[in-house]
Automatic annotation (TrEMBL):
Belongs to the complex I subunit 3 family. NDH-1 shuttles electrons from NADH, via FMN and iron-sulfur (Fe-S) centers, to quinones in the respiratory chain. InterPro entries: NADH_UbQ/plastoQ_OxRdtase_su3 (IPR000440), NDAH_ubi_oxred_su3_sf (IPR038430). This is NADH-quinone oxidoreductase subunit. It holds the Pfam family Oxidored_q4. Its EC number is 7.1.1.-.
Amino acid sequence: MTVSLGYLGSYAAVLALFVVGVAIVAGALFANRMLRPTRPTPDKLATYECGVDPVGEGWAQSQVRYYVFTYLYVIFAVDAVFLFPWATVFAAPGFGMTTLVEMFVFLGFIALGILYGWRKRVLTWA
C-alpha cells in the first residue's frame, strides 16, 4: 500500500532533509564545543597572520598595483567565462559570422582596457 502525499509531499521531504542536515551540523558543533579543551593563553589569543608576529599598529598602507592586478585577473576570468559558451555557439549553423563579430567587439573592449593600463604604466610590477 502506497501513501500519496500529494503536491506538497515532495516539499515536505526536502524540508525534512533540511531539518535533519541542520540538526546534524548543530549537533557536531555542540559536541565540538563540549569536548574541546579550553585553555586560553596570551600567545593563543594574540593576532596571527601568515607566520609574521604583529609589530606596531594594525594599519598599513598597500600599493594600488596589487588591486590593479586583481582587477585584471577578474577581467580575464570573466573573459574566459564568455569565451567558452561563444565557442559552442560559434559552430551552430547560422551563428558563425554574427558571433564572430560580437566576440571581436568584446575582445576589442578588453584590449582597450589593457592598452590603457599599459600606457598608464600600472602593469609594471617593479
